[in-house]
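pinned: reference chain
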Amino acid sequence: MLFNSYEFIFVFLPVVYVLCNYGINFFPGVAQGTSKGNEIRVKFLFASSLVFYGWWFWKYIFIILASIIINFYVSNRMNRAGSARRNKIYLILGVAFNLSLLGYFKYSYFFVENISEILGKEISFEKVILPIGISFFTFQQIAWLVDRYKGEKGEHSFWRYGLFVTFFPQLIAGPIVHHRQLIPQFEQLADKRTWQNLYLGTSIFALGLFKKVIIADSAALISSPIFDAAAVGYQPDFVQAWVATLGYTLQIYFDFSAYSDMAVGIGLIFGMRLPINFASPYKSTSIIEFWQRWHITLSAFLRDYLYIPLGGNRAGRTRQFGNILLTMALGGFWHGASWNFLLWGVMHGLFIIANHVWRLQVSLILPRWLAFGSTLLVVIVAWVPFRSADIGTTISMYQGMLGMNGASLPIWLSSTMLNDLPFLKFDGLGPINLWVVVTILPVGFIISLLMPNNIDYHRYSPEYSENFENRINIWSVLFVRFCFSISLLKLNDVSEFLYFQF
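pinned: its structure tokens
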């Protein structure tokens, strides 16, 4: 089930909200504010989250349930092991199980395919369907096991642990929520049912929906035709390659920003405050700052559970740079079973290392506009392998961006009908709507670079704050309603969020 669908907005979300908050009245003898009533809500949200997850492919409910049960069992055995050695064995077994599950569904076909190419003979192996969200709930549960191994105590209720893993706002594409951030909030669900949370949550959700269906999906109309053509052998020229790359730069920004906003908004509707996962990353003045703003929870996970255990910066510069490169390479490979994602991760690792070297060795401080411009440029250039179907497509796109495939102006097709839109027609490609190009590209960059993001506008923070009430006025209400109404008109063109595939 997608957030940007009629069945979610008008059926699933309101039904779950009403039953979660008021369904307790159907249980005789259970008061609203009691611990028993709270446990019923936890179990109901757990079951609802499983329904949400199984809507796409119901059989995979058993996979996520098996993962939850095994990880919960292993963590409990750790607490009762009685020795550090046994604890370590349970940790290794638990992490191995999680990585094996992720490896089979996400990476098995990739490795078999590459082994086949190396050996020069075909190995029969059917590609398996990737369970949605497996990359996210795998990382969350590995963090849970590692923290248990380190001796962290806390909530041991199976139902709360299950809800922590499956809580539907963050289940499919993050954020990667740490158990310390979410499980304590399950203690008093009823106490968080306030009209302020409902208003703020729906407002953040509505603006996130607008970013997805109006901006991100429109930007895809610019980038996809050219990238898809390059994947089947087309050689894009200078103009085409840059138009496609800039289009994708906006598509992935507003797509991921939209999902992050909608997850926060839905969580807040139920009184849950999810961590901020996206903070205007294109405003960064260094690649290090970019990763402090882009996919914030993934950066935190890679830092805490990979980079620091590898040694971090504690063993000299050479070791530190090696750790950075390995961490970013694995972070890139986490996004998908493709050499392209590995290349993207390595590129960002090298950019971060270059950023550290500049800070350490070069006394020159760049003007802010130059630091900002150079950071944005390398981020844009690095999006090419992230979007491309394979390495060949990446090379073709880079050749086009460098002008190696020539440069030609588009053929302008003027319309004689007032109700027709003019199109850009590139030789060898289908038409691209002119108005999408001349509106989405400038407007998208103006919004992403100059305007406050959704979270900042509503003054949301993971900790409770009443400051957002200053934003509740007639103009903000009208603006949110306008954006939501426009978005509903586009829901017929349903499209998945990009991070669903990772």
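why pinned: Residues 195-231 form the longest helix (37 residues). Strands lie at 411-413, 423-425, 431-433.
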